[in-house]
Automatic annotation (TrEMBL):
Domain of life: Eukaryota
Species this protein is from: Macleaya cordata
Pathway the protein takes part in: Amino-acid biosynthesis; L-threonine biosynthesis; L-threonine from L-aspartate: step 3/5; Amino-acid biosynthesis; L-methionine biosynthesis via de novo pathway; L-homoserine from L-aspartate: step 1/3; Amino-acid biosynthesis; L-threonine biosynthesis; L-threonine from L-aspartate: step 1/5; Amino-acid biosynthesis; L-methionine biosynthesis via de novo pathway; L-homoserine from L-aspartate: step 3/3
Name of the molecule in the record: Aspartate/glutamate/uridylate kinase
Xref: CDD domains: AAK_AK-HSDH, ACT_AKi-HSDH-ThrA-like_1, ACT_AKi-HSDH-ThrA_2
Pfam families referenced in this protein's UniProt entry, alphabetically: AA_kinase (PF00696), ACT_9 (PF22468), Homoserine_dh (PF00742), NAD_binding_3 (PF03447)
PANTHER family hit by this protein: HOMOSERINE DEHYDROGENASE (PTHR43070:SF5), PTHR43070
UniProt xrefs under InterPro entries: AceGlu_kinase-like_sf, ACT-like_dom_sf, ACT_Aspartokinase, ACT_dom, AK-HSDH_N, Asp/Glu/Uridylate_kinase, Asp/hSer_DH_NAD-bd, Asp_kinase
Entry keywords, A to Z: Amino-acid biosynthesis, ATP-binding, Chloroplast, Kinase, Lysine biosynthesis, Metal-binding, Methionine biosynthesis, Multifunctional enzyme, NAD, NADP, Nucleotide-binding, Oxidoreductase, Plastid, Repeat, Sodium, Threonine biosynthesis, Transferase, Transit peptide
């Protein structure tokens, strides 16, 4: 028959006896008779489907279409008719419990034939003993179906073409996935359904109106088709399965608030009956659709398929309900607003509830209720990322005392609601007057406004509450009118409206019973300079709500989220000078960042890199695997102030460090300001610590007063622990007598390799290429670099030297002191090779070597740098490569047995390593685990 629909069974054969087991097609082999009744059948037989009974017309809001096929009326009456249940059917025991797993696949999961195949694979690979799979309509189909009704109601003929699109979409999908009898019977069913729908839409077109039942009937086809296709695909994979039209099973009662309440008892009875006829181990069930007790087709409204899955889970007492979607799980905050948002591994039912109220992408609260009753966990998983474990919503496991343990962190998630206004009703006449709150909220109710949050201080002088902005005008007017007398008499001082507000809520089941949580929350808001207009916390302890100015809302969300989710050793870094050393540091950070985060909870994020000409800034952290390309492609004009502000201006990362890898005095002159702003500073640049004494002392004094850190280990001996060794000696009460050593990696390398026939200038060039020299190698050869190191150690030891106090033997030939550039200097240097060669030969002739040393003489209160001759067996003569050697003579480490530190004292890797270890020192000062 033409109207043999997957929804409506074959038409009655003009008899009143159609009641059970009317198998209408290969697809709808289950009991389709729910929609037939004696009464309806009689109607049908008497009218021969041509005319609707007037009472039914008015009930369904549909008029007859004389030109349409009778099948329309059959379906309409099928839905309103009562059911006669066939009591003769032998009941098969319905197995319940752990053996069942329930899955729900939303529209995007079954959006294409490839995805349907993918879903079928997931079903087949689930090794649960029994599976019930709830499936939505293919993506966009529900909208397409609603659109059909919309167009038909508007008497827009294009509904016919739109229906053809629906047909085509499902026809093509079926052709791609099915073959043989399965394909043939699905297509035959599909064509029948479409022709029935055409007739029904025609009626709507004529009436210019569709009742809710008609709409629900039409849109429900999307689920019917996807369930049939999916069940055929699963069967094709060798798994025996049946599909279920859930209108035969899920019975719901409409509620006043455009929602429905499942009738679990009746639904369970229906399920048993259905199962006795279809004792399947794998069931593919339609999502979204259900029936009223009167067997009128209806839907489960918003997020209906999730609800279907939860109801089925509860009916089967399933082991688990898995909701498959296109996100990895429930986020701790809206990831579009908070880039740091993380997927929550667990949520309690109550937390999920709270989060969903605030619009988080969680389940609708009503979806949670059926499964919560039986403690059935709900798992939210991403069908496009099977490796993501998803979020489990369940009852928190109990500890040995039977108390609920907390799941993950105390605060789970943060959410916001925008477009609110606060209403503040204030006055001394409110205190101690019973009924004031009732009068206020009675007035609010009268204008139909929804109160989102209420707060009243115990002084009772004011009540404040939040309502949607669009409702506030009516609320204020109603209150003013209701309290006119009290306002005139001065018992109420005002009804104040504070527009442009947002709510920020923190959700976590154990939040309020854990001391200090709200303090942390408010502290984070205070630090971000955010004013709180109102606060509410219920005794349920699941949620703290604050009302803020709307423009502060995202900042507030980020601030509180980072307070609870970022480790306190999250550090925003700015790298100044990505040259040889800075660049190597960035590469080391790239290679090590994940390990640090994983093992030590140290989260280092490079928020900016600047050279002298260009800089790159990032809000999230620069991808260090591509920092060079990013710098080339996205570099903007360098601006140090903007740079520092950007790196430090992110209020949500608790710490900032600027790492100066230049040799620039100008950059060093900013340290004071940076430290003052709470920015930690780390550097291998010697300019600040060897610059004017006064500035140095000022800088160190500031550092000592603040809890802001300034580390500069790499300024002396690169990565060697020279500064830290000296500090260790001093801080433990040792007294420095003398520090003597080879402090220049460059000059060490030069004199270690200036042997045989080699020319001095050639070895200098080699040292430069090896990355040992200063950006300008004249700084090394002139002894200035060593003098700076001597100064740094002398000042660290408490001596007050200026650079000019250090006597220095320069190796730069007098005529080259004025050379215009480092390049020119290196070009001309060979002309002077003979002079230095002569010095070396003289030393050699005496069995000695040349070494360039620096000395801090704390006893004589002087420092100097000179080229000296050492016997070949002296420790200073035993070095190789760029080795530094530094001997500390102290009151504990006496004359003949100084404390010696030795090793490579220059080069990109060791220097960057020294800076990196300063960064980790900072992290450990900030509380990183050791
Ligand atoms: N080489 C070594 O073994 C050791 C070096 N050091 C110290 O490390 C520091 C860096 O040396 P190295 O990497 O070799 O030098 P490079 O010349 O290779 O790099 C210097 C970097 O600083 C940048 N720079 C210079 N001036 C400015 C400015 N005003 N603003 C922003 N960026 C600027 C340069 O950028 P741009 O190119 O855009 O101008 C360049 O990226 C020096 O202070 C050095 O003393 C310390 C211990 C050992
Ligand atoms: N140029 C310096 C580098 C380290 O400070 C050196 O050679 O030691
Ligand atoms: Na060092």
């Amino acid at each position: 028959m033409a109207f043999s629909s997957s929804f409506s069974p074959s038409p009655p054969s003009s008899s009143c006896s159609v009641s059970t087991n009317v198998a209408t097609s290969a697809h709808s082999s289950m009991n389709r008779n729910f929609f037939f009744s004696r009464r309806r059948s009689c109607f049908l037989s008497s009218s021969n489907l041509a005319v609707l009974h007037p009472s039914s017309i008015s009930r369904l809001g549909c008029v007859s279409d004389r030109g349409s096929k009778g099948s329309l009326h059959a379906r309409v009456f099928a839905s309103v008719a009562d059911v006669s249940v066939d009591k003769s059917i032998e009941t098969v025991h319905l197995p319940k419990g752990d053996m069942w797993s329930v899955h729900k696949f939303g529209g995007t999961c079954v959006g294409t034939s490839k995805r349907i195949q993918n879903v079928a694979d997931i079903i087949v690979n689930d090794d649960s003993e029994r599976k019930l799979v709830v499936v939505s309509a293919m993506s966009k189909v529900t909208d397409m179906m609603y659109n059909l009704i919309y167009k038909a109601q508007l008497r827009d003929d294009s509904y016919v073409a739109a229906l053809d699109d629906v047909l085509e979409k499902h026809r093509l999908t079926a052709i791609e996935l099915l073959d043989g009898n399965d394909l043939a019977s699905f297509l035959s069913q599909l064509h029948d359904d479409i022709s029935n729908l055409k007739a029904l839409l025609r009626a709507i077109y004529i009436a210019g109106h569709a009742t809710e039942s008609f709409s629900d009937f039409v849109v429900g086809h999307g689920e019917l088709w996807s369930a049939q296709i999916l069940s055929s695909v699963v069967r094709k994979l060798g798994v025996d399965c049946n599909w279920m039209d859930t209108r035969d099973v899920i019975i719901v009662n409409p509620t006043s608030a455009n929602q429905v309440d499942p009738d679990f008892l009746e639904s369970e009875r229906r399920l048993e009956e259905w199962f006795s006829k279809n004792p399947s181990k794998t069931i593919i069930a339609t999502g979204f659709i259900a029936s009223t007790p009167q067997k009128i087709p209806t839907t489960l409204k918003r997020d209906g398929s999730d609800f279907s899955a939860a109801i089925m889970g509860a009916l089967f007492r399933a082991r688990q309900v898995t909701i498959w979607t296109d996100v990895d799980g429930v986020y701790s905050a809206d990831p579009r607003k908070v880039s740091e948002a993380v997927i929550l591994s667990t949520l309690s039912y109550q937390e999920a509830w709270e989060m969903s109220y605030f619009g988080a992408n969680v389940l609708h609260p009503r979806t949670i209720i059926p499964v919560m009753r039986y403690n059935i966990p709900i798992v939210i998983r991403n069908i496009f990322n099977l490796s993501a474990p998803g979020t489990i919503i369940c009852r928190p496991p109990a500890d040995e005392n039977g108390d609920s343990q907390r799941l993950d962190s105390v605060v789970k998630g943060f959410a916001t609601i925008d477009n609110l206004a606060l209403v503040n009703v204030e006055g001394t006449g409110m205190a101690g007057v019973p009924g004031t709150a009732s009068a206020i909220f009675g007035a609010v109710k009268d204008v139909g406004a929804n109160v989102i949050m209420i707060s009243q201080a115990s002084s009772e002088h004011s009540v404040c509450f939040a309502v949607p902005e669009k409702e506030v005008k009516a609320v204020a007017e109603a209150l003013e009118s209701r309290f006119r007398q009290a306002l005139n008499a001065g018992r109420l001082s005002k009804v104040e409206v504070i527009p442009n507000c947002s709510i920020l809520a923190a959700v976590g089941q154990k939040m309020a019973s854990t001391p200090g949580v709200s303090a942390s929350l408010f502290n984070a808001l205070a630090k971000a300079n955010i004013n709180i207009r109102a606060i509410a916390q219920g005794c349920s302890e699941y949620n703290i709500t604050v009302v803020l100015k709307r423009e502060d809302c995202i900042r507030a969300l980020r601030a509180v989220h980072s307070r609870f989710y970022l480790s306190k050793t999250t550090i925003a870094m700015g790298i100044v000078g990505p040259g040889l050393i800075g660049g190597t540091l960035l590469d080391q950070l790239r290679d090590q960042a994940a390990v640090l985060k994983e093992e030590f909870n140290i989260d280092l994020r490079v928020m900016g890199i600047t050279g002298s000409k260009t800089m790159v800034l990032s809000d999230l952290g620069i991808d260090l695997s591509r920092w060079r390309e990013i710098q080339k492609e996205k570099g903007e004009e360098a601006n140090l102030e903007k740079f520092a502000q950007h790196v430090h201006g992110n209020h949500f990362i608790p710490n900032t460090v600027l790492v100066d890898c230049t040799a620039d005095e100008k950059i060093a002159s900013h340290y004071y300001d940076w430290l003052r702003k709470g920015i930690h500073v780390i550097t291998p640049n010697k300019k600040a610590n060897s610059g004017p004494l006064k500035q140095y002392l000022k800088l160190r004094a500031l550092q000592r007063q603040s809890y802001t850190h300034y580390f500069y280990e790499a300024t002396v001996g690169a990565g060697l622990p020279i500064v830290s060794t000296l500090r260790g000696l001093l801080e433990t009460g040792d007294k420095i007598l003398r520090i003597e050593g080879i402090f220049s990696g460059t000059l060490s390398y030069i004199f270690n390799n200036f042997i045989g026939q080699r020319a001095f200038s050639e070895v200098v060039t080699e040292a430069k290429h090896a990355g040992y020299t200063e950006p300008d190698p004249r700084d090394d050869l002139s002894g200035t670099d060593v003098a700076r190191k001597v100064i740094i150690l002398a000042r660290e030891s408490g001596l007050r030297f200026e650079l000019s106090d250090i006597r220095v033997d320069s190796l730069v030939p007098e005529p080259l002191k004025a050379s215009a550039s480092a390049e020119e200097f290196l070009e001309l240097l060979p002309q002077f090779d003979q002079d230095i060669a002569k010095k070396r030969q003289d030393a050699e002739a005496a069995g000695e070597v040349l070494r360039y040393v620096g000395v801090v003489d704390a006893i004589k209160n002087k420092g100097y740098v000179e080229l000296r001759r050492y016997k070949k067996d002296h420790p200073f003569a035993q070095l190789s490569g760029s080795d530094n050697i530094i001997a500390f003579t102290t009151t504990r480490y006496k004359e003949q047995q100084p404390l010696i530190v030795r090793g490579p004292g220059a080069g990109a890797e060791v220097t960057a390593g020294g800076i990196f270890s300063d960064i980790l020192r900072l992290a450990s000062y900030l509380g990183a685990p050791s």
